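Changelog-adjacent note: as of this version, every example in the card shows the full chain rather than a window. The one below runs 476 residues end to end.
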Amino acid sequence: MKKIFLILLLAMVFHNCKAQNKSIIKVQSPPNVVFILADDLGINALNCYGNKLVESPNIDKLFSESMHFTNGYSNDPTCAPSRASIMSGQYVPRHKIYRVADRYKTDKKTLQVMPILPPENNRVKGKVGLSLEKITIAEALKDNNYATSAYGKWHLGKNDLGIAHQGFDEGYEITGHYNFETSPHQDNVDNKEYSADFITKKTIDFISQKSREGIPFFTYVPYYLVHKPLEPKPEYLEHFKQKLRNNPDVGSDEIQVLAMIKSLDDSVGQLMKALNDLGLEDDTIIVFTSDNGHYKTESDIFNQPYRGVKGETLEGGIRVPYMFKWKNKITSNSVSTEPIIHVDIYPTLLGLTKTKAPDNYILDGEDLTPILLGKTKKTKRDALIWEYTNYANYNVKSGKFASKWVNVIQVEGYKLTEDVDTNTFILYNLNTDPYETKEISGKNPEIVAKLKSRLEKWKKETGYEVPKVNSDYKKK
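Full-length structure tokens:
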């Protein structure tokens, strides 16, 4: 009898312990995601990336807590196509946002010297923008029960193609700095406030609310900084004027940009502080990058030592900073030299958050999770490829365009550029010549042939549109 009683007693104790253990097991929620996108911020526009004129202590701190990439690229040297690639996870020929604007159509001197016409920008009901058939990062994460927000520069369509229709629970487009504009128009907004401060405030409000509700969130924070117009805060402008008054190598535009970068840094610092104050730092992935390279300034100090600026496929026009932070998961102050590109962000966020990829939807990028979590050092892909179709600003005296249709492929450090209307090619070896000073196609016909073949394969895979004859062309 005593034995039976003892067995029953032990069984009850075991059952109670098991029940108690069950009750204290915490269900692991997916990590939150804060994705910060700067506007026109060049590869050399941060102190942590080497520009000691820049004051960016908060972004530098993020850099020290992240894995950063030294060979990070945009998908395009201008805003709209690169942002479409980020949001859709697809190369330009798939999403068909080719250009910010078709300036050649209203510029007769440019149109008449173009032997070919580039493909048309994607239109929905007559408006240029990202098709609703594309499944955005936000839509993919919503399917994994994420709350989503986006306050800032959208640039992928208005009205039916705007933020509210592309997978975001809340948000709207904000463009400009002082006297900023909203789309759709918001009546109860003080647009005299600096837009970066306003965007930061709205984002922190969203984060705070979702934290209270216990809902994982994805917040896209596309600041307008440091896009033109040059409108720094007066106190920061005065600070840099005084600091650099005896430095003849820094132009007046560059002083204004330095002041604007300081405002961007303030906003990033406020976001980081909010995450820390809310106890979310351990459970939040932070991504920081830019949409394309920096625009031209007096000495191009924000792209150096690379050649090229925004609007060009030279390295200075397409290299951008990249940082990925996830405390205790991604090794802090680590570095990768692997070439990565905007279309990698989408699959990487799916990988890090264990979110299922959309069914029957092509993602052109690679999930960088194995690199970020230290399981490998190399990507699997064999090539990075760009299509840039922007004909603009033909100069009659020089006989040159400011930009034109080029396709670019990079394989194992070799970078081949195809000039589409002349069917000519130039080649650089970025391994030994990262600043593109020595053209080597004539000495390397086998490499040129290999890259041309791979480029042609990519064109077939992505639905590349071939050039059309320009009926307005007037042969010189």
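Structural remarks: The chain has 13 helices and 19 strands.
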